[in-house]
Design goal:
By secondary structure, this protein is of the alpha+beta class. Helices cover 52% and strands 17% of the residues.
């Protein structure tokens, strides 16, 4: 899998984690909450520098 996400500061990472917890407390599943926050981050950081992560399966 190839995932492009903006590089986030520690503070931004904390805010994202807090947002995920908030959504889960409101009844959203963890997977949905993560997807929502990831989409929000991508939208907020359009055009910013992106970190590309490959998992081991992509390297074959």
């Amino acid at each position: 899998m190839l995932t492009g996400m903006p590089s986030l500061s520690h503070s931004e990472q904390q805010q994202a984690a807090d947002r995920i917890r908030q959504l889960m407390e409101e009844g959203m599943s963890s997977g949905q909450a993560i997807a929502v926050v990831a989409a929000e981050i991508r939208e907020t950081h359009k055009g910013d520098r992106v970190t590309v992560i490959f998992d081991d399966e992509d390297e074959e």
